[in-house]
Amino acid sequence: MNILKKTNTFFQYRFGPLLILVLLLCAISLLTRILLLAFSASSFEWNIINILKVFLVGSLYDLAAASYAIIPLLIYLWVFPSKWYSKKLNKILLIAYFFIVVFTLIFNAISEWFFWEEFSVRYNFIAVDYLVYTTEVIGNIRQSYPINTILIILFIVSALITYLLKEKILASATVPMRFAKRSKLLLLFLLAPLASYFLVSHNWKNQSRNQFVNELSGNGMYDFGFAFWHNQLDYNTFYKTISLKKAIKIISKNLFFEPINLNGYSTLRNIKAASPEKKMNVILISVESLSAEFLGSFGNTQGITPNLDSLAKKGLLFTNLYASGTRTVRGLEALSLCIPPTPGQSIVKRPNNKNLFTLGNVFRSKGYNSRFIYGGYGYFDNMNEFFSQDGYEDTDRNALNKKDIHYENTWGVADEDLFTLSLTKLDQDYNIGKPFFAHIMTVSNHRPYTYPEGRIDIPSHTGREGAVKYTDYAIGKFINEAKLKPWFKNTLFLIVADHCASSAGKVELPVDKYHIPMIIYSPAYIKPGKFDKLVAQIDIGPSILGLLNFNYQSKFFGQDVFKMKDEQQRAFISTYQSLGYIKNNKLVILDPNKKVATSIPNFITGNAKPVPSENWLTEEAIANYQTAAYLYTKNGYQFK
């Protein structure tokens, strides 16, 4: 009773509304955590330690988030004098403010649920990225969910909660307090966010081998703020390093080359072919979210990729290829720059990324017309600016007339319309006698999973399987139409995923969520078969140039896999801050705070068994990532 009485007394105190705000945020955060835990029960590692960690560490992050959330209300309660509080307007403002707060907190909880459903993580770098592209993201949400119904229900629930809290909120409205005392209390309360900023570590939650335990121990709002303020990670500051001289020596040894020593720290070397160059056309199709597990060639029994499976039997199927990252922009970086993923944002989206050493620039130096063709608006993820300034002629959905679009959603036109546009552009190059290299990026295999009706036997907007099968249909249609072109016989087709459909796993970097397919198809030049060696996504560019017997000076970190020795097999996988290096069936992970961990991954389930780190393997991982970051920041990855 005494506790209840004291609590009621506090609500009548001038700064009482702060307590209401803190309790609201913590209660909604706790409920969100419980629901996410229930949703992920099968992937959670259940034991008492993990349960305590989730709720105790999670509560600390909830309080840290609350300490920042109280700042606007704290300033409001400090600024206005007591006599002003007796006015009706103040009561209206306080109630309106708390309605907005309740609405925002519940809206955030719902958003976290959808984000978790998609990525199985709390807000992170992806969420910050999405904040920039409101047109696509809001459009995707509206097309994927009954957003109007959700907002109406949310409005009603928020109004009801605010009404029930009305008396508590207004209890302090008539409490007088001098400005000097208000100022002292302001400074006292501001100690909370200051303590959170200097004392709370974002790494407290990352103490378990189970990734779901770590993520559930966090707070979405706190994690979003952290990602917003730390969207660039300087490699040398946050990651383990070795001397640059040693790093270059390791890379040159692994790739069997003698560097052309311009400044002492460079991967520049001469690539010489034993046979004459082939002036073949090249079409590189990067497919949105095409996990290897979707293809019948990898054991899928749903029959959703009949065209790709047919091409896999007629071409060369890569069975052991791994994507660099978990987003399209990372796939584009790997396919164009052929460089390991540097921490933070993809280079495609960073400043100082003009005239870099790209696959497009190499083809252009050989007299090709290099193209990047995208079915959406190319301002998304900075695609237009990057590709147009790095050796490619850039084309997006703006090049299509309305009459030429059979279907479109927030992400872009239907893949069949993208391929129709591509054929038009490729015909133009052929007609003027220019060999072409075209990188075509699809969009249809993406939530809300909508596409033209009548193309396949799965109705539009019913799920991922339908989107995969529609993209497969569009690729099959494109290949059949290309066969009728005079340039077909002299063209090399490569079909590869940009990344997998899901990145969620029980461990930090689940290797199975990076396994992607690639098919090289050219009936006159490529014999049917399978390529089973371990391949990194950054190896695709140099391997294309190797198939064409190109002589050139290279800065690529990727290698020609058709010439690599067994000991050269390795792959790179990453999130925006965890950098993985796969070699000899082991996975080295470099993390901020100069952490290094090694495990033996299960390539089927994605799970991993921790093992002691080996110095030589750790140094190989560091050498690649450190040098890649160094060359970008020091303008050492320029084309000329």
Structure notes:
- The chain has helices at residues 2-11, 16-39, 48-69, 71-79, 88-119, 125-132, 134-144, 147-164, 166-170, 179-199, 211-216, 220-229, 235-238, 244-254, 306-314, 328-337, 359-365, 383-388, 415-431, 464-482, 540-547, 615-633; strands at 269-271, 281-287, 316-322, 369-374, 393-395, 408-409, 412-413, 436-441, 491-497, 515-521, 529-531, 535-536, 552-554, 571-574, 579-583, 586-591, 595-601, 608-611.
- By secondary structure, it is an alpha/beta fold.
- It has two domains: 2-229, no CATH class; 238-633, Alkaline Phosphatase, subunit A (3-Layer(aba) Sandwich).
- Strands 2, 3, 4, 5, 8, 9, 10, 11 and 12 form a nine-stranded mixed β-sheet that branches. Strands 14-15-16-17-18 form a five-stranded antiparallel β-sheet, covered by helices on one side.
- A hairpin with a 2-residue loop joins strand 15 and strand 16.
- Helix 5 packs across helix 8 (147-164).
